[in-house]
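HUMAN: I'm a chemist; might I ask for a sequence paired with its structure tokens?

ASSISTANT:
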Amino acid sequence: MNANPHVNTTLPAPRTRLDLAKAAPKVFRALIGFDAAAREGLDPSLVELIQIRASHLNHCAYCLHMHTNDARKAGESEDRLHMVAVWREARHFFTEREQAALALTEAVTSVADAGVPDDVYTEAATHFTEEELAHVLALILTINTWNRVALSTGKVAGTDERRR
């Protein structure tokens, strides 16, 4: 029996779009490698906050579901998870370092709107070493890629395919 009556646990509709992992396995493995390299040396909590915020902005329910679950499993609090989307109004939930990463995530994710403003980049650079900043930027790039993969291939929230 479903513990949450608000969640429909019926099976998702059959896939009608391609499965990138099967159709282009070399490309998919390259993305996994890029993602793994981007995470190296970063605090797992920060990794999830970045992925959650980018997934909010990209309206990617599949990735948002996956990364909020990953964050919970890593010990992230429900309060902070609920505040990620409105972090500017709830700054006291996040460290200055996390705030700088979230601001950079927003700027890079919405790069077509206004580029990456110097003040946002400079603030991030004050909280991260050059190597850490490179990894944060790479992580932002990877989650934006994963969001686009999930959205364009019709991934369904709640069907975390990593567990196959």
